[in-house]
Each structure stands twice: as structure tokens, then as C-alpha cells.
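Entry type: protein chain
Record version: 2
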Amino acid sequence: MTRLRLMVEDDIPTLSRPHTNPDDAGEFAWFGFSDPDRAGRRIREHSTIAEDRGNLAVVDDDGTLVGDVSWIRVVHSPPPNGFAWNIGVWIVPEHRGKGHASSAQRQLAAYLFEHTYLERVEASTESGNVAEQRALEKAGFTREGVLRRACFRGGAWRDMVLYSKVRGED
């Protein structure tokens, strides 16, 4: 069973992997080298959860770290009623394909609805990332449409598929 928990210092080496290795990031998440200690700093500073963003660890039945989920507040209309959450997930390559992403995203949406007033949780993924699209659908998200040329990665502009879940949806 997949669970979410607070990040701890022992997680830092694993959480640094997608910032230093394209294979660890995955085909659709490599945007070039970035600060490998970004997560480490936030963990050491106890700032993995803030008013407008956050990160939680994703662990399996044995408590093994298999990835992380993140959320950030986005604006769709005048604040504060126009805010929504945008979420993301990263799973360690050796744990992909086991259902952790869909379970973690379902749990994160439930957590955000339980602990914040916002009505909407959304996620987007590249149009070619069929595995993540399936994971979001399995997690109860609804496909809303395509955001054309919304992401620049690997030297090219790419279309993104937008998904959402609103309060009260399973």
C-alpha cells in the first residue's frame, strides 16, 4: 500500500536523483541539471510544507521511499476564490509501474481537500506521457483538454494534457 509522509533527512539522497540524472528524472521530467540539494535544504529548514506549496514523501508497504508528491497554489481568477492546487509526482525508476503514482495523487488530492478550502486540484502532463495520463485517470482525475505548446523541454515546445478533480469527486 502506498502512503504519504513528511520528508526526512534520510530521503535527501533519493530526492536528489531527478536533478542530477536524466534517467532518474524520466523521459518527461528531465529539464536539465538543477540544484541537487533543493529538497535537502527544504527538509533541513523544515519548509517542505508552506501556505502556497508543499512536498510529501511517497513510501511503499515496507516504508521504502519510492518518490514524492508536490503541490503549488495557482491562480485562475481573482484571489482568494480563484486559487487552485496544481500537483505533481515523481517515482523512483525502479518503483515505476506499480501503481504508486496513481495512489499517491489520489491521496494528495484527498489531503488537500481535507486540509484546505480550495475546490480544485489539477495536474498536467505532456501529451506523450500516456503512463501518467492513465495514472491520473486511475486516481479519479478528469481529462479537461490540451494546453498547446505549454511546456518547453528538450529543445522543443510540447503540448500538455490538463486533468482536474473538484471537491466531492472520488
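Comment: The chain has a mean pLDDT of 97.
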